[in-house]
Amino acid sequence: MPYAGNPPSPTENKVSQILSIISAYRHRSATVPDRFSEFAPELEKQLAETVSRGEAVRFILPAFPFKAPAEGDKHKTLGSLPDKAEEIALQTLDGFADSIAEIYEGGATVVIVSDASVYGDLLKIPDADAFAYQQELKKLASSLGLTHLAFVRPGTLAGIATEEAKTLEEYSHHVSKTRNLLDGTLAQAVDPSEDENVQATSKHYDTALPQTEDPEALKAAMLKRGKAYAKLIASSAESTIRLSIHESNNVGKITLDLFPPATNPDFITPWHGTVAVLADASVRIVDASTVDMTKFEVITNHEGRPWLLREKSDLFSWFGMELDFEPLYPCGMLVRPRDGYGPYRFEDVNMKRVRRLALSTAPLLLRGFTMQVEKEVFRSKARELGEIQMWPFGDILEVRENADFNMNNVLTREAMPFHYDGVFKTVQDEKTGEWISVPPLFQMFRNRAASQSKGGLTLFASSRNLIPLLGPDSIPLEELRKLKWKTFTAANEAFGGHELLLPFIITHPESGVDTFRFHEPWPESKCVAGSSEPTIVRVVDWPLAESDALCEKLTRLLYDRRIAYRHQWKAGDFIFNDNAMTHHTRTAFENGHREHWRVHVN
Known about the structure:
Elements: H1 10-25, H2 36-52, E1 57-62, H3 84-103, E2 108-113, H4 116-119, H5 127-143, E3 149-152, H6 154-157, H7 168-183, H8 196-208, H9 215-236, E4 241-244, E5 254-255, E6 274-277, E7 283-286, E8 296-300, E9 306-311, E10 323-327, E11 333-337, E12 344-345, H10 351-360, E13 364-366, E14 369-370, H11 374-385, E15 388-389, E16 397-399, E17 426-428, E18 435-437, E19 442-449, E20 458-462, H12 463-466, H13 477-481, E21 484-489, E22 500-503, E23 505-507, E24 514-516, E25 535-539, H14 544-559, E26 564-567, E27 574-578, E28 582-586, E29 595-601
Parallel strand pairs: 1-2, 1-4, 2-3, 4-5, 6-9, 11-13, 12-14
Antiparallel strand pairs: 6-7, 8-9, 10-11, 13-27, 15-29, 16-29, 17-18, 19-27, 19-29, 20-26, 20-28, 21-22, 21-25, 23-24
Helix pairs in contact: 1-2, 1-3, 10-11
Protein name: Spore wall maturation protein DIT1
Keywords: Oxidoreductase
Domain TauD/TfdA-like: 343-599
């Protein structure tokens, strides 16, 4: 947020950065006016107090009660335990907090308070189901290595229990006492029309609650409990920032999207829906009761638990191979042999299937495949994918530290800017003399050695996730479509040396959808190795300050954890990436041998 008067202090700068992250993650309701700007000054004050003390920014989120109960033969979910929907939601919340921890040394934590003891009896959920759901949710967060999440129950907040229940008997005892408190001293009358947020919750209940003989009575009971619950949270967690999963005006509490927006247009919570992988490999959050199950199959996880729905398609049928197709967060897909099968020979992979799948979901990661006579097979399989694009060094680039070949920062250990390959691969127009960028459509990687040192991640940012997040906080899509950017980097042994004028939004050459094009500005201060050169990026016909501001916003989007998949390489990994749909970058690494083979294909 802007500050008047003297230049902002370090604390004010940090608060502004944190507030920008909160603002970016907030859900903008289609039915409730967004009044976040009215709440921002209060948040600024609270954040300033937290940051000045060097304490962690703590958020509290009432959510994740239990899976929605079945209504007769109508099942919104795949079962009573967490599945892929909860996995994605937890990753989103952890990524939100990690984004703050990355720029603020005090860190951030999202405290998840289960609603089960608040609403379970009203919805006739057995304590055993709610307890099992919560225990499995914590196991899931731990297995994913999510370090910015904490789990508590309302009874712990209220002081009814000194520690979390470890058995069903303890849990049921705490739940009973919690409900007595909510229906007793904390109980308050509720007017469903008293403010915009209550109105939004009431409207949500009209469709979300199960059918009963007296739906208005159930809704009234839910709203009353909810108001008492909100009072408990406010009194027990005064120094925290309240988050919500309900539509709201973003005043007093901030509503978050628990999924990348492109995957959840209907704003379904993970406990009211499930993940569906469609025939084109895209991911959607759906109410399972609305799905035509003759066209979908239930996919289980390694424990045999129903995990997600997948539309039947030959994309997921590779002859002679028993494979899992697992959506990566927040984009891409992992293909690997099922437990008890493989490894399979890369020579036997159908590259037409790979091409179709990579065009539908990028990056496409193959793990658990072997390759003999390495370079010959790698080159041969690349030709099956398409026409190989040649470079001055040939077709296959061995991406490893190499001071003897100047390719800017590509063959170094330092970090790289977000970019798409081939932006500086140029040909000259014979008629106009203009230098034209001719980037390849595909990248094909094979990891030969994965450094075990800190860093060395490859980030892939998908336009499918980025474009839906364009808007007032950055720039609307239709405005960006009208603009061009110009860029320059010095010539090296493979590329560079010509200034280029390029559009921000292009039509994908295969699918015809909008895709984003950009190169992260890279100043000389970030160039460490002797071969590294800066990359200049400007918005055409914009004043320098405004151009820099937009470039900073677009760069921030590329690194957003709802947009960019962070890949930790393992030896033997293959990645096929749609270079038109994605951007990628590399984080710096300290030591240890790291090597990929890369080939470009059109």
